[in-house]
Amino acid sequence: MILFFGPPGSGKSVQGQLLVERNGWAWLSTGELFRKTTDPEILECMAKGELISDDMTNRLVDDALKDLEGAKHIVLDGYPRNVLQAQWLLNNAPAHKREVRALIVFETPEEELVKRLMGRGRSEDTEEVIKRRLEIYSEQTQPVLDFYKTKNLPIITVDGLGEVNDIHERIQAAVVQQDLV
Questions:
Q1: Hey, which of 49, 82, 121, 127 has its CA 20 to 30 A from 180?
Q2: Mean pLDDT value across residues 164-181
Q3: In the sheet where 2-5 sits, what is the strand order?
Q4: pTM of the entire predicted model
Q5: In this structure, are residues 114 and 135 in contact, taking their beta carbons and an 8 Å threshold?
Q6: CATH number for the domain including 33?
């Protein structure tokens, strides 16, 4: 599995989809899993900009990984979001005959993130909710990167600014260089 890591609006979903299309891989987005749900508890959390509980998120990811058993590689977008989820993934990936092979980190300035998110037109993307999601990212998700560094996993940093195709080519080159294809 290749993990896409970065704040909301950094381009993870767009770039993840481009990468899987180009290489014939599978894309797994917890954001998509949450948006497709009809669970009122999840919908309420999303409306407030809060994160979904670890147990519920892990269960959704576990079920999704079962559904993707035949995929060569999986690009995981939006998960893990905290160290407990990161530990869960390392512990449970082998049950799905998977391992975390690399982490791709998107670096994008906050003002660009807010601009992108406001432009998506999603009902949950109000300025207040966006700022809260960015705060949560800084507080809870950033330590995941430090956790994975201690596990000596390849960490690829990508500049999240620029044209979509230019960013994609940077990612593809890094994936090839790390022999992940």
A1: 82
A2: 93
A3: 26-29, 74-77, 2-5, 102-107, 155-159
A4: 0.85
A5: no
A6: 3.40.50.300
